[in-house]
Each structure stands twice: as C-alpha cells, then as structure tokens.
Amino acid sequence: MFISENRRKTISIALVASVMLFTTASFAKEYIATEVIKNNSNPVFPANKEKGIDGGVVYKVKDNMYTVYAINNQEKKGFKYGRTPTKNEEKAWDVDVMPDGTGLPEGKGSVEQGDELYEEKCSMCHGEFGSGGKGSRSTYPTLSIGEASTDSLTNQRINPDVDGPKRVIGTYWPQASTLFWYIKTAMPFPHPKSLNNDEVYALVAYLLSVNDITIDGQELDDEYVLDRAKFLKIKMPNEDGFIPKIDGPKGAENIKKFLGNPKNYGNGTRCMKNCIDGEPNVVRIKKEIHKYEPPVSVVRDLPKEITSSKEVHPGQKIYETSCAVCHATDAMGAPNVGNKEAWAKKLEKGIDKVYENGIKGINAMPPKGGTSLSDEDFKKAVDYMIDNSK
Ligand code: HEC
Ligand code: HEC
Questions:
Q1: Count of alpha carbons within 13 Å of 165, Cβ hemisphere only?
Q2: CB neighbours (10 Å) of residue 288?
Q3: Does residue 138 or residue 126 have the better pLDDT?
Q4: Is the peptide bond before 192 cis (omega within 30 degrees of 0)?
Q5: Measured from the CB, is residue 152 less than 6 Å from ligand 2?
Q6: What whole-number distance in Å separates Cα of residue 14 and Cα of residue 21?
Q7: Which atom of ligand 1 is least distant from the CA of 172?
Q8: What is the structure's pLDDT at 92?
Q9: Mean pLDDT, to the nearest integer, of 160-183?
Q10: Is residue 185 predicted with pLDDT exceeding 60?
Q11: Which of 309, 306, 172, 160 is nearest to 241 (CA)?
C-alpha cells in the first residue's frame, strides 16, 4: 500500500477491528469484526468504483460504513448477533454420536454396499482399501493398514513410534462412534452431509472390515450387514490404548497418577527428540501379526534433497518415491540398495530376468512395486538400484 502523504491525510481510516471474540459477553462492545472506512464522500475513494486507490476492493456501504462483512441490523450490543437457530437447524448440526450410542440413528448397510460407495466416493482420496493417498498438495489420511497390524500399538500421542504402526482407524481410534459421526458430518470432503444414515452404516462396515475388525467375534465379510444393535457391540482394538483412562469415577485419580510420573511427558524439560528416558510407561495393545504387508503408497522419508548440480541418475527419483519403501529397509526381505551380495546373486540369472521378475512381481515384490510405472521407467529404477549396489 503506497498512498501519498497527501492522500493519506484526506482519507481517514479507522480500523475498528474487534478481533477479540471473547467468550463472555461483558468484554464485547463491538459485535463483529468490521473494517470501517469513514469519510466515504472522499472523491478518491468513491463507493461506486470496484477498486480502491490501492487496488483493493471497495466494499458496499451500509449504515454509513464500508464493510467487508454484511452488517447485522440487529441490536449491536453484546453478542446478540444473528438470530436464534430454528429447531431444525439445531437438529442438522446435532449429529454427534456418543460412545454409549446416544445420537446413533437407526439404519443399516452391508460391507458390500460400503465397498461400492467407497470406490465411488472415497477411494480417489483415501486410496484403495483405505491405503491412503497423495494429492498434488496434500496427503490424504490412511484409513486402514489392512490385515496388518501391530505387535505394538502404543498411545502414539506420547510415544510416537516411527517404526510402529500408522495411526489408522483399526490401530488407533478408541471408539467406533467417532467414525460414524465423522463420516456423516464431514465426508466426503467435497460434499459433507451428503450421505444418508444407511450409507454411513455401509461405509463404517466397510472400513471396519478393511481394518480387520470383528464384531462379537464375527468377521465382516461382504454380506455382513451392520445395524444399530451390532454397532453398539463394536469394540475397537485400541479402546484401552488411550491413557490415562479419564472416564468413570476414577478418571481424576488416574490423570493425577499419570501426570505424577515424569516418564509420561518427558521429565519436565522441553524436548523434541528421544524425550522419554528408558522404557516408557505406556500401555500397549497386542494384536497378532498376520500377513503384514505395508501399503505401498506410504513413504515415510522425505526424498533426499538434490543439492549439487552433478548429474543425477535418471532412476533415482523413481526409486526414492516408489521403491525405497521396501528396498531401503531390510524389513521386507527386498534386496537393499548397497547390498552387493544380494544384487550380485539376483544378477546371476541375467539382467533381463531381473527386469522381468520386477515387472511381473515375485514373492513379496508386487508387480512393478505396486506402481503403474512404464516398463522403461521401472527399468531405470532397477538400474539405479543395481548401479548403487556394485
Ligand atoms: C477430496 C478428498 C476426500 C474424499 C473424496 C473423501 N475424503 Fe475423507 N478425508 C479427506 C481429508 C483431507 C481428511 C482429513 C481432514 C482433516 O483432518 O481435517 C479426511 C479424513 C477422513 C477420515 C478421518 C481420518 C483420520 O484418521 O483422521 C475418515 C474416517 C474419512 N475421511 C472417511 C471418508 C469417507 C468414508 C469418504 C467417502 C464417503 C471420504 N472420506 C471421502 C479427504 C477426502
Ligand atoms: C512392497 C515392497 C516393495 C516395493 C514397493 C518394491 N519392491 Fe522390489 N522387491 C521387493 C521384495 C520383497 C523383493 C524380493 C523378492 C524375492 O526375491 O523374494 C523385491 C525384488 C525386486 C527385484 C529383484 C527381482 C528378482 O530378480 O528377484 C527388483 C529388480 C525390484 N524388486 C525392483 C523394484 C523396483 C524398481 C521398485 C520400484 C519401482 C520396487 N522393486 C518396489 C519388495 C518391493
């Protein structure tokens, strides 16, 4: 904003910015944050022009004020802005569901219906089977790590374990009730509140099934129909993973005891790393690992920054985004980059066979590493791995 001194004098700008939305009415004289520009007869700032002298938008005049906000004509004192919502408006917002079932509507939906809805309305962001997804600007939450799970799911708020399981519905959410109303209120992201109760039941059933959660000992196969009665029997694997247990008559006591132990929050010093000395005092839930296969779309590390202008291997980037998940760690039994022996052994059968195995997939190596790369790009990544394992 470069306004000449002269002009600055002629325009008297008063900023009445009552940004303080205090919680008590007594604090608030102004009821709405409003940018008021007085002296609107000033010729250099005519109300009927779209643009102000600084190029900014000129807003409509109401009650002798230019304002970015619509002026509320009701009494301008206290917090009496707006009007009382109607009963129906209240009802439209009051959709939360409590762990005890309060607010949970009647309805039903099958896993299969949920699967179809998910494909249609959710998978573009949350990935196949909830495996998570990447958009151009952000990463969409992973909703399931499949049959995977966890030998050690922790209260990750306190002891985030980078190698530990991801926080997804099955490993982390303590209550299924949240799942119902969250989806009902907020999803699909671009069209919240567009799903009816049956659809939400179906989606919940599907998401529970891909999270390998059973209800009353029953597996959620395609035909499984989730309804209100069954919903109330869901017990989430991490129900007790949140500590301290703050509900119930012992809540306060538990919190006190928990906070009384400095191990639980980092010995009283500010800390960003390795905060907990020794074995942390956390409750872990145990679940058998069966067929652990991490989703291929999850990359935990940022790609290495390329600092020098020296030539970069054409396969490096592909490797880092699509292959390093498995080929940089021993976890999967994938030949590591840098492991000369392992790669030499693979290459005994000739490079073409190695390419072929990679493209078609072999054992725990998914076809093309689970990507849709072209053969050519895939081979570049293979070359990169081999070149760096000599
Ligand atoms: C356009 C992308 C998009 C679509 C489509 C979409 N979501 Fe989401 N979803 C998101 C984003 C972004 C978040 C995180 C929102 C936040 O944290 O504020 C999210 C969060 C969630 C979460 C909470 C995850 C967590 O761990 O916190 C659930 C559950 C969920 N979505 C379910 C669904 C379901 C079911 C559908 C389909 C009916 C759906 N989403 C469709 C983008 C999307
Ligand atoms: C989900 C984990 C995973 C991802 C992602 C992955 N790989 Fe693999 N890859 C493996 C495993 C495990 C093996 C070892 C398979 C075996 O021999 O049992 C392997 C083996 C290979 C082999 C050797 C094939 C042979 O001759 O035996 C090549 C080549 C290969 N991967 C290339 C790639 C490339 C290139 C990418 C990225 C585009 C990639 N992989 C992504 C897990 C993965």
A1: 30
A2: 7
A3: 126
A4: no
A5: no
A6: 19
A7: 26
A8: 74
A9: 79
A10: yes
A11: 172
